[in-house]
Amino acid sequence: MTRPMVAEISATALRHNVAVVRQRAPHARIMAAVKANAYGHDVTLCAPVLAEAGVDAFAVASLEEAETLHALRLERPICILGGPFAAEEVRNAAARDYLLVIHEQRQLRWLETHAADVALRLFVKVDTGMHRLGFAPDRLSAVFAALRHYPRWRVLGLMSHLARSDTPDDLFNRQQADVFAEAMACFDGSTAGQHSLANSGGVLALPFTHHRWVRPGLMLYGLSPFAGRSGSEIGLQPVLSWRSAVVATRNLTPGDWLGYGATWQSPAHCRVGVVAAGYGDGYPRHLGMGAPITVAGQAARILGRVSMDMLSVDLTEVQAEIDAPVVLMGAGGAAVEVLAARLGTIPYELSCRIQARVPRRLVP
User: Strands (DSSP E) along the chain, which ranges?
Assistant: First the structure.
């Protein structure tokens, strides 16, 4: 690799963030969410560190993601949060002993047709008010009645998802928790009691949502689920440091235009650096003009439009030459949360945007 682009992934930060989960939810088991390629951080790098740090299981979104994780041989249960997406996935999942989440009647029919005589471990997802996935509470009696016909199926527990844990004071969190508690009271005896509700926001701020399993995702990568607060402000360490370098410099005179669309005109003599990074790498084009960036350890700003492979930065007040290191986002640079807020989006989206052509490298 000669292009000066890398996303560094900190093993120390991953381990620290797992310890924060343990501190916040000391009586729960940790099911680490590593879906979407570990939220863009590279599951093949992150999952082994998370296993070594003591997480108890992993959560993914699909069978394909489960297979990638299985190949790492980390000896931890793998839970497919979306359950089977097609009938033929059922036996494949059973052969690997993946934990399946079922959330609709069609999936139950697939299990009955293709795995009636197969040992399965299941979670039953209940819709507690998010109205995305899950059986309505008044359907659970029928679901459990059907499950009882298959003695080789073990229902580990109920599962649901919090819709507003990013706003912990919202009463909707308590409403969802109450619906979940009522379902647990009714069906706990039909399960192994391994219920799960809390995501990162729940782990950090809603202890009444901590049950046998917590499912942290974003916080494992050092990012905050709460608007207006960075991960570092709540005791987390950023795992990602997305880095590049200055590959050219330009001296502009007053009136010179810069970049695609000639959207920025120099008001005075200035010095510009060209950085090897662009929207083709996943750096958002709409961050653009004025976005914070760090060059040679100094605060700088982006000028003009972000192009596919390059962006321009103001070096007028920055001591930096060609090959000077640049931090696009993350540790050592602008916090992912800050850039997400600038775009009017969430940290999840920014980290997941980083493209496969950006090499990831595990650092201590």
Answer: 6-10, 29-33, 57-60, 78-80, 99-102, 120-125, 153-159, 213-214, 240-252, 257-258, 264-265, 270-275, 292-295, 298-303, 311-314, 325-330, 360-363
| Structural domain spans, the chain | 11-223, 240-330+332-363
The closest of 214, 272, 278, 274 to 248, measured between CA atoms, is 274
DSSP reduced 3-state for 124 = strand
- Cα torsion at 221, 227, 228, 231 (round to 10°)? -10
pLDDT above 90 covers what percent of the chain?
A: 99
Helix H, strand E, coil C: the string for 74-89 is CCCCEEECCCCCCCCH
Active site residue 279: no
Identified catalytic residue from 35, 150, 221, 283:
35
Report residue 13 as tokens: 């930060």
pLDDT tens digits along 63-108: 999 999 999 999 999 999 999 999 999 999 999 999 999 999 999 9
pLDDT at 1 over 70: no
Superfamily of domain covering 11-223: Alanine racemase (3.20.20.10)
Q: Can 125 be counted among the known catalytic residues?
A: no
Of 39, 125, 260, 348, catalytic: 260
**pTM higher than 0.90:** yes
Question: Which superfamily is assigned to 240-330+332-363 in CATH?
Answer: Lyase, Ornithine Decarboxylase; Chain A, domain 1 (2.40.37.10)
